[in-house]
Design brief:
This protein has 10 helices and no strands.
Length: about 230
């Protein structure tokens, strides 16, 4: 009797992995909610918009943030970021111009306080030399000095901005955590799109047609009761 021997051939699959760029992890740290710039204290006028009934749920919030990102502060900040990352960037001049373009006193306060806090921490931890300028300019200057990839820096900045406002809406509307995360997930592709588009723009291209957002920022200054500084 012939005994057949079954032979099993095992294929060894070797997975090819790409090394993680440590710069991306540093960017994630800079733009995470745990970075000590006090972002949680600001609503960018969203608190006034909610108080006035302009934002009442997840759908309203998503539309509001899409407009702010595409036609308001998000687009402007992306342009300022790219400008600050240029090798010949004149930060004092850019800072003066960005402050002049701000729609309200609270907008200047919000960006200036966070920019100074960002610069202080980034300089102390990473040995950078970032002056206390408005937040997008401070992040851009730090990214240039640390050799960060431009598009990733701007996209993560915009995503962090949207995340901060989503967190504010979760507390103010009130909005469920899951609904808030759906809104943020829906905005993610837009952040990447705007980061790329802003690369070919300059300070002369900064504008805002997000009028309700600008009005909300001004109205917030006179709110009697408020949780946020802007």
């Amino acid at each position: 009797m012939t005994t057949g021997t079954a032979r099993m051939t095992t294929a060894t699959v070797t997975a090819t992995t790409m090394p993680t760029d440590p710069r991306f992890l540093t960017l994630a740290q800079w733009l995470s909610p745990s970075f000590p710039i006090g972002a949680f204290a600001y609503s960018h006028g969203l608190e006034a918009a909610i108080a006035d009934g302009w934002v009442r749920g997840a759908g309203d919030l998503q539309g509001w943030l899409e407009d702010v990102l595409r036609e308001g502060s998000g687009r402007a900040d992306a342009i300022w970021l790219w400008a600050a990352m240029a090798t010949d960037a004149d930060l004092p001049a850019l800072d003066a111009r960005a402050r002049a373009y701000a729609a309200s006193a609270e907008r200047v306060h919000e960006s200036a306080r966070q920019g100074a806090a960002f610069a202080s921490t980034a300089n102390a931890v990473w040995g950078l030399d970032v002056p206390p300028v408005l937040l997008p300019l401070a992040v851009g200057a730090a990214a240039r000095q640390a050799g960060m990839p431009g598009a990733d820096t701007v996209a993560l900045y915009l995503h962090a901005f949207a995340s901060t406002l989503t967190s504010a809406a979760i507390r103010l509307v009130p909005l469920g955590q899951t609904e808030g995360q759906r809104v943020l997930a829906a905005l993610t592709p837009l952040c990447a799109e705007l980061a790329e588009a802003a690369q070919d723009r300059g300070p002369d291209d900064v504008y805002s047609t997000c009028f309700l957002s600008d009005i909300a920022a001004m109205r917030h200054e006179t709110l009697t009761t408020r949780l946020f500084q802007s």
